[in-house]
Design the sequence.
């Protein structure tokens, strides 16, 4: 039996890692999209209070990636992945328990919401480390595993809400409880199939004590500059959740149009991610990132143009903005993830992945706050102003990123990666 499990771990490592992202997203999206409905319905919270709780949950995940990354360097990524899943089991269990009482317990519900986010902050960096190690053993020039990870994750993101909607008739508490049981089964499966060692360290003699760690990542000025520049990618992609609904408010059939935008982005991800990743590999990291940030800047310009008609934003312009944001992210995110291990001085690079995601989370938090303040304060004839101002950020990143990459001694940026 032990021989069979060892063989499965070695021969199925990449399918297991990619499949894990699908399974994880199915469970996540079956529960989390319905948290807002529960906060406003069962607990009677205002829109602002609901938004605050959801913002805290998002920061507990995206903003705390650096913790998961640092722990992945200090310990085996496998252990951190399993810990992240166990944390999410606890979070979903608290969500269910908060509603299975005589009176719904808001404090318990918020604790469960935060734990679901922190579970992702532990899980994703550990998975990224294992993906990076598997990528290092592949032939360069092929579609990166991070692009495949985006596709398999999107499959889960598409299936999850459907599953959750089908279960919602039994109540959100039951959906959360089933989600907790589902993640417990995933933990058991991965405990059998995930590799127990990181491979590279076994051959090089590196230990957790020799990991670059967060301090090394923060001292790498070129890397810190790179993650600051790349943070505009997540800010732009997050506009699917802020700019699109905001710009379509007051338009005819708003809810259906917003749903169509998200369906379009899902279809775009499934159909275009791999071709765009292949093209990005041919362009090389520097050119691909420059183009990705430029597309995001154009997306903000389209959003500004759409805002000129506040009460009935031109739907085609909103779709155009969403498309530019989506394509920019499909090119920029896998390329940046693929680039991270080249900055790290050793094979352990969880802190580097975590820092990349944390900067993105901070950019979303501050950028959305800035957009909201400006949108609320400008007169109707200047509604285009906040989107145009934000467009300067990805435009600046597009200009600066080639120079930053060129300055790093371990980063070959001048020549495109040749196809195998």
Sequence:
């Amino acid at each position: 039996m032990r021989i069979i499990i060892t063989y499965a771990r070695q021969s199925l490592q990449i399918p297991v890692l990619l499949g894990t992202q699908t399974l994880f997203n199915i469970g996540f999206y079956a529960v989390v999209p319905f948290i807002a409905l529960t906060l406003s319905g069962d607990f009677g919270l205002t829109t602002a209070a609901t938004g605050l709780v959801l913002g805290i949950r998002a920061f507990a995940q995206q903003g705390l990636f650096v913790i998961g990354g640092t722990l992945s360097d200090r310990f085996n990524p496998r252990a951190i992945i399993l810990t992240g899943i166990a944390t999410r089991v606890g979070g979903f269990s608290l969500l269910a328990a908060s509603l299975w009482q005589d009176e719904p317990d808001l404090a318990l519900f918020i604790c469960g919401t935060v734990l679901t986010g922190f579970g992702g902050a532990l899980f994703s960096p550990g998975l990224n480390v294992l993906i990076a190690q598997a990528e290092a053993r592949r032939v360069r020039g092929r579609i990166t595993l991070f692009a495949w990870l985006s596709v398999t994750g999107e499959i889960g993101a598409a299936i999850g809400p459907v599953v959750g909607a089908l279960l919602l008739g039994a109540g959100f508490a039951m959906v959360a409880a089933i989600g907790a049981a589902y993640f417990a089964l995933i933990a058991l499966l991965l405990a059998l199939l995930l590799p127990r060692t990181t491979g590279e360290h076994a051959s090089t003699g590196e230990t957790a004590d020799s990991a670059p760690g967060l301090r090394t990542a923060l001292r790498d000025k070129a890397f810190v500059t790179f993650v600051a520049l790349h943070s505009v990618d997540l800010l732009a992609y997050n506009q699917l959740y802020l700019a699109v609904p905001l710009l379509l408010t007051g338009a005819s059939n708003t809810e259906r149009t917003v749903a169509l935008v998200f369906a379009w982005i899902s279809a775009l991800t499934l159909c275009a991610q791999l071709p765009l990743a292949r093209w990005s590999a041919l362009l090389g990291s520097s050119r691909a990132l420059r183009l990705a940030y430029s597309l995001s800047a154009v997306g903000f310009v389209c959003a500004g143009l759409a805002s000129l008609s506040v009460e009935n934003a031109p739907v085609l312009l909103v779709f155009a903005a969403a498309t530019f944001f989506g394509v920019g992210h499909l090119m920029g995110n896998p390329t940046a993830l693929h680039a991270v291990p080249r900055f790290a001085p050793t094979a352990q690079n969880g802190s580097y992945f975590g820092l990349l995601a944390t900067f993105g989370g901070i950019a979303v938090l501050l950028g959305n706050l800035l957009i909201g303040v400006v949108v609320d304060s400008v007169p109707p004839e200047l509604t285009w102003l906040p989107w145009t101002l934000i467009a300067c950020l990805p435009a600046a990143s597009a200009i600066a990123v080639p120079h930053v990459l060129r300055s790093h001694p371990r980063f070959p940026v001048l020549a495109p990666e040749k196809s195998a």
About this structure: The CA atoms of residues 268 and 326 lie 8 Å apart.
